[in-house]
Amino acid sequence: MGYELYYWDGIQGRGEFVRLALEEAGADYIDITRQPGRGTGAMFDIMESESEPHIPFAPPFLKDGDLIIPHVANILLYLGPKLGLAPEDESLRHVVNGLQLTVTDFVAEVHDTHHPIDMSLYYEDQKPEAKARSAAFIRERIPKFLGYFERVLRQNPKGPKHLVGEALTYVDLSLFQVIEGLSYAFPRAMTNCKAEYPALLALHDAAAKRPNIVRYLASPRRLAFNEEGIFRHYPELDSAG
Length: 241
Known about the structure:
By secondary structure, this protein is α+β, with helices and mostly antiparallel strands. Helices cover 54% and strands 6% of the residues. Strands 2-1-3-4 form a 4-stranded mixed sheet, with helices on both faces. The longest helix is centred in the middle third of the chain and has 28 residues, at 127-154. It is globular. The termini are far apart.
């Protein structure tokens, strides 16, 4: 049986980091909520179960047989060795996981640019706060995070093509998605700063040319960015920097 991925239908969101790894590996998986007759109800059946002993708090989560694995970094730590997207050296797998957890922190800050006060409120209910938060994010946090990952690439003893070791790992694909998402959400800010991160841009461009990723990006399985997901483009926030 293939892996079962559970995430909100209609948005890339955090589920996309898992999809990219599955697609790159050519893994057999089902995006459950996008299946006819399933939808998000199938996801809530598990999350709200009163008998499942290992219920997840929120999506994304992955089912592999009877095993349920929640949280992006946790899912990728589990999948990485199975998909050939983790180092053979087990100690380096923890390094890759640490980098993925840093991506998780970064993605949370991206989300908070458009929902800085309350997740239950609409963006329109917190626009002044979102503009202030986005200005600080563009000014301080994008350089902080991208600068860190640029240094990791440059200081890799095996060369700057990958974050860890000499072969592709899932966190390389996650950085591809981060650059894609930031370029959609903050095109002006990213145009102004991309030249500062040549190794990161090279990593992004190399990932975009991988055959399985090329096929995935051109397929209907790759959902478009939109203003329901984590990476949202509001021109007034992009100009906040």
